UniProtKB/TrEMBL annotation:
<protein>
    <submittedName>
        <fullName>Major paralogous domain-containing protein</fullName>
    </submittedName>
</protein>
<dbReference type="InterPro" id="IPR011871">
    <property type="entry name" value="Fib_succ_major"/>
</dbReference>
<keyword id="KW-0732">Signal</keyword>
<dbReference type="Pfam" id="PF09603">
    <property type="entry name" value="Fib_succ_major"/>
</dbReference>
<feature type="signal peptide">
    <location>
        <begin position="1"/>
        <end position="19"/>
    </location>
</feature>
<feature type="domain" description="Fibrobacter succinogenes major paralogous">
    <location>
        <begin position="53"/>
        <end position="191"/>
    </location>
</feature>
Amino acid sequence: MKKLLLLLIIFTTTLSSYGQEMSTMTDARDGKVYKTVKLQIELEGGIFIEREWMAENLNFEMENSVCYKNYPAYCGKFGRLYNWVDAKSACPENWHLSTQLEWQELMIAYGGYKTAGKHLKEGGSSNLGIIMGGFSNVEGQFSDISKTAHLWDAELGDKRTAGLISLYADYDEVSHDVISARNMNSCRCVKDY
């Protein structure tokens, strides 16, 4: 029985890391090097797609981007925070701000919104390494460093709102919300395909 359990654990571990390739990319605009992960994702019906994601939050300085609480040291670990309009153009050439569809693909690959967080967070099986970088609201108040990760998606809600993916340090659920496009949140870029 113990041998069977051990084989099951090894098989499960092998499956969860199948289709991943770690690499790096250099942002030609400022020379920053980012870790990337190429994920092979199985959709319904046995269809496989491949997406290359940055495995770190974007840290490209733009006029309106900020570091958490305006301390540059936070940018080194957590990346910069962007409003939605700037986030749409912040990714390097041949990369784009992650879309709602691309986040949904991750939810399919990692068990759905209720449990995907454990795979997407730092140390998780996806190797995306999402860290809890907090956010800044429209009044410029910073909050939730080490507690939440809020990442823009490319979809506009209406003229004043935009899509947001949230992960939480204390539980594994991932949420998709629509919030003010003027909030400041983290960005993950996906290679164009």
